[in-house]
Amino acid sequence: xxxxxxxxxxxxxxxxxxxxxxxxxxxxxxxxxxxxxxxxxxxxxxxxxxxxxxxxxxxxxxxxxxxxxxxxxxxxxxxxxxxxxxxxxxxxxxxxxxxxxxxxxxxxxxxxxxxxxxxxxxxxxxxxxxxxxxxxxxxxxxxxxxxxxxx
Length: 151
Description:
single chain, mainly alpha, 2 domains, 0% strand
């Protein structure tokens, strides 16, 4: 389990960086008016230069990827209920994502900004969880149908 956790954490690093990079491209396409914005202007301002901001954002994205990758092994703990797996993953994800988002200025630095970001985070988590749940439920139903046909 420990070896798999480390492996998944290491695999998560480039995935976290790639997702972050893709998000910057999508944001630039939507709001950049033809310009590329590698990170939010507030992060550039607080770090003193764009390159410092990009380095910090890349490191934070790598950290998030590592945490999410390592935490993904929780979904394979068969002794745990789905509810326990969900709660533990949600706690790990939110405890790592919210401070990172605050440091990277991905959210407004106010109570309303934090609450709004957390609400969006919860909505995305619920959407992904429900999609995965329904997908697995459908696959299991198909497998069970095939098993009953084979009898």
